Amino acid sequence: MSLEVTVPSPGESVTEVEIANWLKKSGDYVYKDEEICEIDSDKATLTVSAEASGKLEVLVEAGTKVNVGDVVAKIDTSAEAPAGGPAPVAEAPKAAEAPKAEAKAEPAPVTASDSYAKGTPSPAAAKMIAEQNLPGTKISGTGPGGRVTKQDVLQFVSAGFGQNVAAINGWAGEREEERKKMTALRRKIAQRLVSVKNETAMLTTFNEVDMGPLMDLRKKYGEKFKEKHGVNLGFMSFFTKAVTEALYHFPAVNSIIDGEEQIFHDYVDVGIAVSTPKGLMVPVMRNAEMLTLHGIEGKIKELAIKARDGKLSIDEMTGGTFTITNGGVFGSLMSTPILNPPQSGILGMHKIQDRPMAVNGKVEIRPMMYLAFSYDHRVIDGKESVGFLVKVKEMIENPQRMLFGSKEPEEILLGL
């Protein structure tokens, strides 16, 4: 019997996908629920699993665009499984029946080619490799079983820069080129970024924030927070909370343009930009204004893991009203983030760096971070953009304001 493998629907609005990669090839025997291929849509990468065991026949090559519902492969369920395939678990011998003694075979001698020690540096060699930042995988081992010894490291270093330059910097010295087709996701990202530049009046305003108060707060309560809630206390949750409060005061930043109308949202769905092996993805955290700090941290962790593993659904990547991106994790000191359409604003966080600052007439070294807020000038005026960013800065430098509607506790007490 032949079973057809059809393209599943990644989402309601998706009608066309691309066969990104076949995990199995024609003629392979596949087992039920085993992943056989990956498909790329404009928004996500999904895997297709075999619905039954049998011999696979691939009908469509990788890189081909297909419609949802198209037949891309067939599985011959009448084919016999190979002898080396998964076998049923054998029952344990009964207590009354002692297992028969088997003659012990002499272990085969371990050679350097199949030894677990091959390429593993000794403690002394590992220390030298770490101190001199050497490529350990490029050093041949002459010790027992192929182990890398201290003498091997010394010999590698003594060979000189000229001989080992290719091994050290990774270049092979050849003048070759490789041409690869862009994935559907990467092509969609390219199209969206170009459209933002062409179709919006994007502008960026900058400010800087003293991260000292937040760093002190994390140092004081970080362990208790993790012990009670099971997640780390990160900066992203504070910035998300500060953004939701600032958006309440500047609703235009939380709006979008739809034709000749401006749509205002009375909720905040925050997109968190995540870098994955397949490209930049922006999973969305729904109703962030209603979440606690540990709720935000837990949701960020969940979405980041799904993004890394390619398990995000279409619903988890659409419908955001505002985006936060953190280039600081990669060492960026300052950048201009690009809008995530149709949203009107995106906040860029950056690297924390100690800098001399004037504090109460004295120079102090403070941990500072540059903030960048890109916005669509068609719906957000300069006053609103600057006011929004200043409001975020105020709450980050005074975390207690997040608990009192961006006001100081004294202001609440005085009814101001």
Model description:
By secondary structure, this protein is α+β, with helices and mostly antiparallel strands. The protein folds into 3 domains: 2-76, RNA polymerase II/Efflux pump adaptor protein, barrel-sandwich hybrid domain (OB fold (Dihydrolipoamide Acetyltransferase, E2P), Beta Barrel), CATH 2.40.50.100; 128-162, Dihydrolipoamide Transferase; 201-414, Chloramphenicol acetyltransferase-like domain (Chloramphenicol Acetyltransferase, 2-Layer Sandwich), CATH 3.30.559. It has 9 helices and 19 strands. The protein has helices at residues 123-131, 150-158, 161-169, 184-199, 212-229, 235-249, 293-309, 382-397, 409-414, and strands at 2-6, 16-22, 29-30, 35-40, 45-49, 54-58, 65-67, 71-76, 202-210, 255-258, 261-264, 270-272, 274-276, 279-281, 284-285, 322-326, 345-349, 352-359, 362-376. Strands 9, 12, 15, 16, 17, 18 and 19 form a 7-stranded mixed sheet that branches. The chain has a 4-stranded antiparallel sheet with strand order 1-8-6-3, with no helix packed on it. A 4-stranded antiparallel sheet has the order 5-4-2-7, with no helix packed on it. A hairpin with a 2-residue loop joins β18 and β19. α6 (235-249) packs across α7 (293-309) and α6 (235-249) crosses α8 (382-397). The longest helix is centred in the middle third of the chain and has 18 residues, at 212-229. It is globular and about 75 Å long. The termini are far apart. The model is unreliable at 87-105 and 107-113 (pLDDT under 50).
Quaternary organisation: single chain
The CATH topology name of the largest domain reads Chloramphenicol Acetyltransferase
Look at the structure and name the CATH superfamily of the largest domain: Chloramphenicol acetyltransferase-like domain
Report mean pLDDT, rounded to a whole number: 83
The CATH architecture of the largest domain comes to: 2-Layer Sandwich
Count of separate structural domains: 3
